[in-house]
Amino acid sequence: MSRLSGTGLTLAYDKRVIAEQLSVEIPDGSFTVIIGPNACGKSTLLRALSRLLKPAAGTVLLDGGDVHSLPTRTVARTLGLLPQSSTAPDGITVAELVARGRYPHQGLLRRWSERDEQVVTESMAATGVGDLADRNVDELSGGQRQRVWIAMALAQQTPLLLLDEPTTYLDIAHQIEVLDLCAELHERQGRTLVAVLHDLNHAARYATHLIAMRDGKVARSGPPGEVLTAALVEEVFGLPCRVIDDPETGTPLVVPAARRKTSVQAEV
Length: 268
Description:
Blueprint: E1 4-13, E2 16-26, E3 31-35, H1 42-49, E4 57-62, E5 65-66, H2 72-78, E6 79-82, H3 94-99, H4 114-126, H5 142-155, E7 160-164, H6 172-189, E8 192-196, H7 200-206, E9 209-214, E10 217-222, H8 224-227, H9 230-237, E11 241-245, E12 252-256, H10 263-267
Parallel strand pairs: 3-8, 3-9, 6-7, 7-8
Antiparallel strand pairs: 1-2, 1-4, 4-5, 9-10, 11-12
């Protein structure tokens, strides 16, 4: 049984329904990427899976239990979340922010320990921000800040990590940097990752499992090579295209159809 799944979900904000009878299953040990057009319910689904949004109907199961019935500390030790917009307190250093990832492991009888310090150091090293430990977070570039937030999520030491549009607002070099890091975490540490991405080619290159959504429903799910076809891209995104093999990775590469030449261009 998958450690994280949702069954018969109705997701809504007040009375505005985003999805009905939505069911998903996150394969254990996968790098699952959720794709789909704007407003199709991708981030809403991730919020429901992460316990930030309570379904109006249906159940999100974490290790077989309703995620909303489990103790908060238990959820925080099992499931980490990198939200779409993360704002650090003014004046906080990188090391201080990453250390906040250890809060779920603290308690009345459990104080800061050498183990906590070690995990924070290892998390910063894994994300390449160790040399920034004493810098203020608000002084960093977008790519550096995103790495710091991922380091904080790593410091929670959760087997499941959810990332909502982790490449938003980053230039192409930093997008690849962050996704390479996510892939390394998945491959080297065996963590189950779930990410919402907009770029189809990034999704195809990095995911081991794709969930394609449209209008609050799952249009198709499975390995990228099976899901990302020209027919599906046109059905879900309304985009005529060709899907070829990526010359670097062999994964699907979406090539949008060229704009037709006008009669004036043809004459020239």
